[in-house]
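Homework-ish question, so no full write-ups if that breaks the rules, but can someone show me the predicted structure for this set?
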Amino acid sequence: MIKIFLDEKPLEVNEGTTVLKAAEEAGIDIPHLCYHPAFLPEGSCRMCLVEIEGLPELELACSTQVREGMKISTKSEKVIEARKGVLEFLLAEHPLDCPICDKAGECELQNYYEEYGLFDSQFKETKEKRQKKVEIGKNLILDLERCILCTRCVRFLREVTKTQDLGVFNRGLHSEINTYDGVPVDNNYSGNLAEICPVGAITDSDFRFKTRSWFLKQGESICPLCSRGCNTIIESHKGFTHFQVPKRVYRIKSRENNDINGYWICDFGRYGYSYLDDKRLDRIIVNNGKEALTWEKAIAFLAEKIKRLHYVKKTSRLVVVLNTWLSNEELFLLKKIFKNDLSVEKIYFIDPADGEDDDFLLTSERSPNRRGAQEIGFDLKPLDREALMEKADLLLIFGQFISDRFNLTEIKAALENIETKIYFATHSDELNSLVDIVLPTTLIPEKEGSLTNVDGIVQKFLPVLEGPGECRPEWKVLVDLGKELGINFNYYKQFNSPEVVLKEMSKEIPFFEKKNE
Amino acid sequence: MEEKVLTQHFGLENFYNIDVYLKKGGYQAVRKALIDMNPEKILEEVKAANLRGRGGAGFPAGVKWGFVPEVDKPKYLCVNADEGEPGTFKDRYIMSHNPHMLLEGIIITSFCVGIHTAFIYIRGEYEAIAVRLEQAISEAYKNGFLGKNILEKGFDLDVFVHRGAGAYICGEETGLLESLEGKRGHPRLKPPFPASVGLFQCPTVINNVETISNIPFIILKGAKWFCEKGLPKDGGTRIFGVSGMVKKPGIYELPLGTNLKDIIYKYAGGMAKDKKLKAVIPGGMSAPILTADEIDIKMDFDSLVNAGSMLGSAAIVIIDMDTSILDVLKIVTKFYSHESCGQCTPCRVGSSWINKIVRRIVEGKGKKEDIDNIVRLASNIQGNTLCPLGDAAAMPILSITKKFRKEIESHVTN
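A: Not a homework solution, just the prediction itself:
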């Protein structure tokens, strides 16, 4: 550790760190545009100039390493003037079309002008005319007039994806970012370009003109679309008092986690969010003309069915179908109830089919918690055709994936062999009319819990979206079921939150003990 | 008195040919350096000679070489022959008249620093000179001055000529390195400096053609002799390139510290058509301009810095009274806006913004406040850019608008 003075405030900072990072840690904002923590300092935007005692010229905060006793000013007159000067240059040729720019509200240039600029324009000349709508790749629209040439996009494609799809062409004021001979950006990480563009130069056609950034609420979550467990931000819209919006979720962004995904997420995770809103199940369905049920009555009904089988020692007539989109806590409760308490043997798993991994973040497993299920003690017996066709008295299905993996005729034939079928579902699908009761449950962003990623990292998540209608988180349903069954009432009674479940898991399973420290 | 050292045999028939060069005592410096001296002794001599860089910045060559660390990587020498500074044309004379003198300098420098690969980065427009250099290099190989085991001293050296593609910025040393690596000529952030992290991330010495060409004379005649040719802290002669409105434009090799007045009126024959002198740009276009009243000045690094200008590449541009200073400003701003690489904001936008304003003034649509705006913008460029090109653009603009404000004001309305 060495001592520096930042705006006269003494600070202990790590040797070898930069002025910008030291300031960030001390909560002092130094504006920057070309600098991105994922890349080496570029030093081209010149926004982060600071004054260092003893040096004749202003220095870059992004690339200057701290030295013992260094006295840095981020607020001196010279710094403020230089910042304004750089902002003036950036805005001189910038189109100032913020009212129709998709980035408005989250534009770093706009924010810096508000914070450090607020001058009148002295630019009386004609601005350069450039292409406004270049399609540079899947979902990516490039506006060359708005581009400030920070080259974050160029460096991302050079250093992260190593595909080098974008370059800088021409010189001086005519410098432009573009593709090489029109060959589009085509990789599974291109969506990050719109996210790291500090201005509205690269916008995402999946998002653009759908809403305004300031209407969106940010919620921290974990991507469930593969087993990497990338950290994300889910941006959702609540609608207006007199105006409904067509969906809740408008955008998924990456959230920094250097142990897992760095600053990035893949396009598969970024754009695959429509399942959060499309065809969601929001009420309990009871088929065959029976009377409507509340959750309490439904759980009592289910418990009664199970208890009857348990009493006559016929839990072999009970089949449970699970998936690894369930959280650690839910899988733990399922194991306690069905394996430990009821000794059910026919527990099968069905997940979305595996896909290709991409040698970077995307794994071949298309569910977030397979490792968790293994560590909890499931052998992950797959629900194959044979298992599906087994005769049974009671079938419990968790999750949506049966209808993805089997065709309707097969499912119909299978279900005819079973007396009572209860389906815990998040979406409406063909199975809804084929079972006796459909109970609406939640998706990851709508509940609390934890997931174990492919490398065994346990990550907690909290609800960031409200579940639709009557839906209930599975962990809660399972705790209630455990209590209702009465075999171990006091054990399930303690679980008033997933956190308590995880604590209990850490006591019982050494793997989680380590992870929950 | 014109002191001919580097230029002494210029004009001699076929002097670029190695046989003629050898007959005139060529490659004696290489023999002396490799046979009678060792790298430490050479470095000591070059340091003692106070040879300051002839490219423009005036950094002492010996000190620069001393920065090269001993690491487990190859080391490179890059000779900067980009000669892009407007008004500068000395290096082309050296390379076309006396390429072997440059090669001698390259061999000695490489031997001193422990370099086995040297590049001559030459501006693309110097096509014929590049061909001549390549001929000279091939002659040197044939005569055993290049290649393996030079003079049987176990020292290997290869020299390559690399032609630029026409960008001023590639004369900036790190822009040159990027270009030489096959990338866009975008200057690098410093530190690290090229001496430690240069070409292909290896330690690299970058020196101007004229700087390297002085080395053989320092070796042959000694640091003491060399210092006496110039000033105590500024050894050697300097090749001044005089252009513009003088009777005899051309190169003049003179001791450092020669009076500018003498250069114009004595050596260059005075003003063309005996017109009145208006202004002098003393060190290439980026050097702040001097008025006719300021020409009684010694042409050396320190005297010019004290006068608020710089010696730069020692390219002297003479401007007479018939020339509109607004035209000068237009040319200067057009050049820098055209040659800005576009990497960093102040230079990219600022230089072109100023050029747009100047063009408007030339069209008669300027206002007094536009001049203030030019000054303000140039001040916002100066000191705030990634490489020295921003300063190079701002300095002449600031000095012209300051020293000739009245004349510019006569072209604008209130």
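Now go work out the reasoning yourself. Hint: Chain B touches chain A at residues 167, 184, 186, 189, 337-346, 348-353, 356-357, 360, 373, 376, 380, 383-386 (CB under 8 Å).
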